[in-house]
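Technical annex, item 7. During the second reporting period the consortium partners agreed on a shared format for inverse folding records so that results from different sites could be compared directly. Each record opens with the tokenized structure and is followed by the designed sequence. A conforming record, contributed by the partner at site C, is shown below for reference.
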């Protein structure tokens, strides 16, 4: 039910459309009911003599009186009433009623269009926006393929299952209600009897719908596993081929796909049950009504013509009532998807922007870690870190992998908040600064450069609504990227997507550096990635990095010591603890862990300069 209440939240902004729709639907139903009541005079004309009353009958909510009033009106307006005249009037009236009914229905559907598409548009937007705002920790926990399924596949499922049912969900109950009221007027005992059978039918239908919802939820999660596997396989296609693991991946895929097949059959069969089941239940209800109503007629307590009209009306209830049941089935599938989308929407965001942020005049003096401890879940990663990064200095983080270097760097832009201690910028707790202010002054060059499906120029001037092409070229030149960009088919306008995998690691890295230069932040976080490059690329990238670091404060996560020998301060981090701290020479003289690391790398011949 929670899914439904969430759905109403999306429908609520469109309430004026809903009011218009309901009004027109009511009107349409009224015409529909009226067109059916014409069956009685039709039968009377065929079977009886019709003689319009001479005086206007007293008004009463009673079928025969209402008909007498109609005949009286017709008699006075047409002069004399002949049987063929009445028949013609009824036929023309019928066409008129159906025309009005269908006009109402058409305009009702016309009105509801913005609600149907709008609610889905809003849901999709909210899911994506929320996703963009969620902290990195969420993406560490969740599989990308699963998130993708939720914001695309599940939204599509909601669109199909729920929004396509919305019209029927709103319209059919109105139709059922209107006909039931008309039936109550005609014969309330029989109608009350019919109504008494409804809960039993609803119970049977509800039971099957529940199992359908469960199966659908399971079905969507298998679909998401399939997406995760596909995404993983595409990302790791090189490794898969290198290990000749195609069959291994195919087997994994086939197992999941087979599960999806079995479940798909189950869902389809359950869903197919809805129509025959509700039709069969409907036929039982009709048979019972025919039996009891027929008996009342045989007893002479009900006019046979009225009973025939009654049955005709009842037949009109069956179809929308069946549609309500089918809609309910369909919606269960959509609600299962809606619940999965809610899983994303309800995800809390622990990284909150302060409501009243502290004033910020730019990074002036230092970044300080004060007794900072951090854990991913239960795993302690940083323990009581105290560190100061003075403006203009280059600080290098070294140590074995898994020691907590990247985590320490991630605390500065508040990708994570520490569980203990404070991170201060110019003496102010960064949690009290507006996230925009804080992140504006930080530039990041990750180990794996990230490029977006856009032109080279837009990738450099990333997120700038008005890119300055002059500056883009200037930054590309500083990052030693201008030459290779100029060689591309369309230069700076070349789409990264069109290039596919044609850019080398070093070229991508230089684009990422040009992007950081364009942003021109006072504080840089570099995850050094020169080790994977060939020596020529490495040299170019290193030169670009040196240019980038000029006159800036930098925190460098170093994988190879050769690049950070001149850092103002080197911090040796292992198991989340700072073991040694100082410049290259002093750490070397200390003869501790840094010295060991240096010797290992020196012996391996991995460094080129020991200053
Ligand atoms: P380094 O950069 O020194 O290699 P990291 O900061 O990347 O170290 O990782 C420190 C520890 O935290 C490692 O044991 C790693 O497995 C763990 N870790 C890193 N990122 C996450 C994450 N998103 N969720 C859970 N554990 C993580």
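Designed sequence (site C submission):
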């Amino acid at each position: 039910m929670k899914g439904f209440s969430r759905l109403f939240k999306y429908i609520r902004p469109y309430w004026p459309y809903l009011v218009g729709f309901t009004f027109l639907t009511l009107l349409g139903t009224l015409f529909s009911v009226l067109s059916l009541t014409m069956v009685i005079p039709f039968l009377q004309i065929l079977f009886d003599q019709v003689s319009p009353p001479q005086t206007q009958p007293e008004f009463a909510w009673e079928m025969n009186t209402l008909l007498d009033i109609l005949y009286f009106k017709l008699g006075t307006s047409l002069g004399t009433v002949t049987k063929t005249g009445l028949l013609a009037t009824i036929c023309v009236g019928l066409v008129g009623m159906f025309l009005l009914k269908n006009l109402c229905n058409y305009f009702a559907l016309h009105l509801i269009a913005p609600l149907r598409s709008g609610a889905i548009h809003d849901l999709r937007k909210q899911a994506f926006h929320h996703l963009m705002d969620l902290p990195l920790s969420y993406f560490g926990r969740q599989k990308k393929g699963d998130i993708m399924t939720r914001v695309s596949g599940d939204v599509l499922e909601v669109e199909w299952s729920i929004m396509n049912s919305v019209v029927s969900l709103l319209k059919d109950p109105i139709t059922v209600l209107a006909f039931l009221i008309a039936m109550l007027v005609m014969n309330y005992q029989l109608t009350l009897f019919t109504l008494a059978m409804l809960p039993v039918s609803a119970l049977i239908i509800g039971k099957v719908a529940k199992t359908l919802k469960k199966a659908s939820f399971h079905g969507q999660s298998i679909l998401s596993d399939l997406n995760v596997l596909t995404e993983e396989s595409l990302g790791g296609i090189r490794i898969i081929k290198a290990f000749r693991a195609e069959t291994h991946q195919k087997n994994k895929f086939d197992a999941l796909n087979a599960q999806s097949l079995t479940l798909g059959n189950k869902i389809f069969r359950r869903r197919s049950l809805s129509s025959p089941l509700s039709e069969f239940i409907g036929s039982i209800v009709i048979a019972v009504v025919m039996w009891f109503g027929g008996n009342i007629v045989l007893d002479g307590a009900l006019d046979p013509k009225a009973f025939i009209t009654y049955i005709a009306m009842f037949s009109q209830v069956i179809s929308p009532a069946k549609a309500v049941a089918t809609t309910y089935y369909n919606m269960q599938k959509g609600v299962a998807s809606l619940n999965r989308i809610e899983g994303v929407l309800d995800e809390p965001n622990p990284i909150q922007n302060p409501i009243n942020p502290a004033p910020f005049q730019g990074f002036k003096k230092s970044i300080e870690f004060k007794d900072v401890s951090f854990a991913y879940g239960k795993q302690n990663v940083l323990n009581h870190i105290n560190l100061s990064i003075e403006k203009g200095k280059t600080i290098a983080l070294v140590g074995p992998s898994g020691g907590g270097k990247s985590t320490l760097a991630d605390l500065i832009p508040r990708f994570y908040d520490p569980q203990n201690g404070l991170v201060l910028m110019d003496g102010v707790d960064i949690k009290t600064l507006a996230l925009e202010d804080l992140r504006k002054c930080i530039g990041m060059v990750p180990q794996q450069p990230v490029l977006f499906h856009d032109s080279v120029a837009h990738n450099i001037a990333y997120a700038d609504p008005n890119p300055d092409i002059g500056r883009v070229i200037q930054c590309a030149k500083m990052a030693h990227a201008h030459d290779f960009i100029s060689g591309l088919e369309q230069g700076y306008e070349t789409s990264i997507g069109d290039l596919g995998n044609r850019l080398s690691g070093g070229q991508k890295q230089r684009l990422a550096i040009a992007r950081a230069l364009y942003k021109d932040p006072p504080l840089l976080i570099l995850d050094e990635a020169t080790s994977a490059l060939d020596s020529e690329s490495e040299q170019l990238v290193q030169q670009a990095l040196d240019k980038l670091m000029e006159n800036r404060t930098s925190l460098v996560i170093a994988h190879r010591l050769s690049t950070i020998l001149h850092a103002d301060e080197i911090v040796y981090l292992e198991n989340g603890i700072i073991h040694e701290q100082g410049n290259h020479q002093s750490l070397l003289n200390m003869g501790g862990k840094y010295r060991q690391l240096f010797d290992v790398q020196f012996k391996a011949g991995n460094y080129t300069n020991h200053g």
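Residues 246-298 form the longest helix (53 residues). Residues 477 and 483 are 8 Å apart (CA to CA). All partners now use this format for quarterly exchanges.
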